[in-house]
Write a structure and sequence with these properties.
about 140 residues, Glutaredoxin, alpha+beta, single chain, four-stranded mixed sheet, globular
């Protein structure tokens, strides 16, 4: 099976699905990566803000950063080769990149927006808005490490 590696721009957490203004593409993409993992694909994801060494040791990534800067992120590699640059691909594209032809790519796509804040857990997210103690009830964002 193919190995898919995602090199994200700097984000607040590993998926970027935290904070007051979440890009709607990010929960969908996180769900798509989880779907790939369930299909048996080896998926790795790196965040420039949290894992800069992973960027520095990969010559393909450092070359892309030299050429395009942060505009080249996210960078998606399949078996070490650039598959996508500067945007988050759709599930069907990801499936094609890794050779999953004939797989039902719509499975779970509607669940993308219901994922959790920073984790791949399927727990629902509950947020209290306003008040002194307002915070997310999702453990990965509300608990300290």
């Amino acid at each position: 099976m193919a190995k898919l590696s995602v090199f994200d721009p700097p984000m607040c957490c590993s998926t970027g699905v935290c904070g007051p203004s979440v890009d709607p593409v990010l929960p969908r993409f996180a769900a798509d990566l989880d779907w790939l993992k369930r299909q048996g694909i080896d998926v790795e994801r790196y965040n420039l803000a949290q894992q800069p060494a992973a960027f520095a040791v990969n010559p393909v990534v450092t070359g892309a950063l030299r050429e395009f800067g942060n505009d080249g992120l996210p960078l998606v590699l399949v078996d070490g080769q650039v598959a996508s640059r500067g945007r988050y691909p759709e599930r069907a594209e990801l499936a094609r990149f890794v050779g999953l032809v004939g797989t039902a790519v719509s499975e779970g796509a509607s669940k993308a927006a219901s994922g959790s804040c920073c984790c791949s857990s399927a727990e629902p997210v509950a947020v209290a808005i306003g008040g002194a103690g307002a915070r997310s009830s999702n453990r990965c964002c509300s608990e300290e490490s």
